[in-house]
Amino acid sequence: MTFDLFDDLLPETPHTEPLAAGAVILRAFAHAAAPALLEAVARITASAPWRHLVTPGGQRMSVAMTNCGSFGWVSDARGYRYEPADPLSGQPWPAMPEPFRTLAAEAAQAAGFAGFAPDACLVNRYLPGTRLSLHQDRDERDLRAPIVSVSLGLPATFLFGGLQRTDRTARVRLAHGDVVVWGGPSRLAYHGVAPLADGDHPLCGHERINLTFRRAR
Ligand code: MD3
Ligand code: FE
């Protein structure tokens, strides 16, 4: 018998877990960088505040979002797309912070995608109860580029399906510092996040923050 009481408190030993064809989990890859990443998120949200986007179908998303980089992902009654400016301010999105760029490139490299140069980072905020329903990410021009995701704060249950919405979904726990690289045949897989369970994270309190690095154009 083993004791798992401290699973949520102790940092994981960094290691790689294959998830599916083209998808790999880099456990704890961002653990050391996390404080700097969170500081950068605070700067980003000071100029491009959290907002709840509305789907083209008129549903308010429970995830709060913002962006940094040359392009930001937005959704409204006109559809899903990447925009060079924040619709709330009319100003360009905050620049991609150097620690973001470096971490994303190093993670992609470790997963076999050399030369990944993201031009967009969607920043998602989950509070207890927040969920993200099953979807594909397909608003990017070059689907040969992977997406790199970084989980910070409270752990989440990530849902990972197949190329069709009705394919069965696997549940994967993503904790603070975990990075996932989604490329190849997994790039268009359906995925989502189960309602966030409450908790109290030493750096993030009752929040989970997810960074997704993309090549939009
Ligand atoms: C699999 N975010 O921002 S990250 C999203 O935790 C999004 O906030 C979730 O889905 C989150 O679009 C999941 C993991 C992720 C991101 C993009 C993917 C998995 C993916 C793209 C293709 C396949
Ligand atoms: Fe997604």
TrEMBL record:
Per the UniProt record, one Pfam family is 2OG-FeII_Oxy_2
Q: Which GO terms describe its molecular function?
A: dioxygenase activity
Q: Which cofactors is this protein said to need?
A: Fe(2+)
Source species, domain of life: Bacteria
Q: What residue stretches are annotated with the Fe2OG dioxygenase domain?
A: 117-217
Task: Respond yes or no to whether keyword Ribosomal protein is given for this record.
Answer: no
Keyword tags: Dioxygenase, Iron, Metal-binding, Oxidoreductase
The record, for NCBIfam families, names: PRK15401.1 (NF011930)
Q: Would you tell me the protein name for this molecule?
A: Alpha-ketoglutarate-dependent dioxygenase AlkB
Organism of origin is Cupriavidus malaysiensis
